[in-house]
Specification:
- With 324 residues, this protein is mainly alpha-helical.
- It is 55% helix and 7% strand.
- The protein has two domains: 5-184 and 291-320, Rossmann fold; 205-284, Tyrosyl-Transfer RNA Synthetase.
- It has helices at 18-31, 43-46, 53-70, 87-96, 101-105, 108-115, 122-125, 127-136, 150-167, 207-215, 234-242, 245-257, 262-288, 291-320; strands at residues 5-10, 36-41, 77-81, 142-144, 175-177.
Length: 324
């Protein structure tokens, strides 16, 4: 039986954090045996905010090593750089010619930037179209996304429908896969954990970096002896990522009974995080010492993808009329 195709990726725009892991990477690792998985490093997307050669190059390699250290198996997953697939930008142009500016002006990322009075580059404005090309060119069946990214998948579906209506059935409509319990991981300030908010806990940070971030988590002013509602505590929300069963129930009871300080809860969380990432750290060190192996994995992934989409692009070119 042919496996369904899964596709997703992460921008190399900074240090990977635990929100990236539980919101995305863990899903990729868990699903890699069940689907034909295509996982990419979205370096084109990162260029909307990074215009520094050294920073971008380092970030790309770091994200690749992070993916591999977290458990992505290159024998099961096609891991590649977005920029190694030039057909993605070609397809983006075709899509740009059939959609309208008001359609893109509804995008949340654009509206957020506009409301902050930022001067918006064309890449950011066109971001949903490039993402649609990433997804549709691979005939993806499933796209794991965070709850806040659902709109991007809806854009991809809308663009596919419009192209199909104009040129005939060409693209399948992908479905979102969202694990609700980890759809949004809170940062140290209570908002979604995000590099742009500077509220992250680094996945492969040093023990001291992790400790500093966790001890900065915002809490209310309740005293240690006061009963606390665990479901309103950002620390407890993060505990739920690492604790299960009786351990989690026991901690929940301590919150409700009183006698647990936020400081103690943070110290417990620090130990949970460090213990959890320890085996991944060892793999990360291996790849840091074998970067040529990482680069070859990316090249092999790109080669497979390019070979796989050659026929698809010929079909698209024939349908729009540029092949003569």
């Amino acid at each position: 039986m042919t496996k369904k195709r899964l596709l997703s990726g992460i921008q190399p725009s900074g240090t990977i954090h635990i929100g990236n892991y539980f919101g995305a990477i863990k899903q990729f690792v868990d699903l890699q045996d069940s689907y034909e998985a295509f996982i990419f490093i979205a370096d084109f997307h990162a260029m909307t905010t990074i215009q520094n050669k050294k920073e971008l190059s380092n970030n790309i390699l770091n994200v690749a090593m992070d993916y591999l250290a977290c458990g992505l198996d290159p024998k099961n997953v096609h891991l590649f750089k977005q920029s190694d697939i030039p057909s993605v930008t070609e397809l983006t142009w075709y899509f740009n010619c059939i959609i309208t500016m008001p359609f893109l002006e509804r995008a949340t990322a654009y509206k957020d930037a506009y409301q902050k009075a930022k001067e918006i580059n064309v890449g950011l404005f066109d971001y949903p179209v490039l993402m649609a090309s990433d997804i549709l060119i691979q005939d993806a069946d499933i796209v794991p996304v965070g709850q806040d990214q659902r709109q991007h998948l809806e854009y991809a579906r809308d663009i596919a429908i419009k192209f199909n209506n104009i040129y005939g059935e060409t693209f399948k409509l992908p479905e979102a896969l969202i694990l609700k319990e980890v759809a949004i991981v809170p940062g140290i300030d209570g908002r979604k954990m995000s590099k742009s908010y500077k509220n992250t806990i680094p996945l492969f940070g040093t023990d001291e970096e992790i400790k500093k971030a966790v001890m900065s988590i915002v809490t209310d002013s309740k005293r240690p002896e006061d009963p606390k509602d665990p479901e309103e505590c950002n620390i407890f929300t993060l505990h739920k990522l690492f604790l299960k069963g009786e351990e989690l129930l026991s901690l929940k009871k301590r919150y409700k009974d009183g006698g647990l300080s936020y400081k103690e809860s943070k110290e417990m969380l620090i130990n949970e995080i460090i213990n959890f990432i320890s085996p991944m750290r060892e793999k990360r060190i291996y790849y840091e010492n074998h970067k040529d192996e990482v680069i070859n994995i990316l090249k092999e992934g790109a080669s497979f993808v390019k070979n796989g989409i050659t026929q698809k692009m010929d079909i698209i070119r024939n349908k729009i009329g540029v092949n003569i």
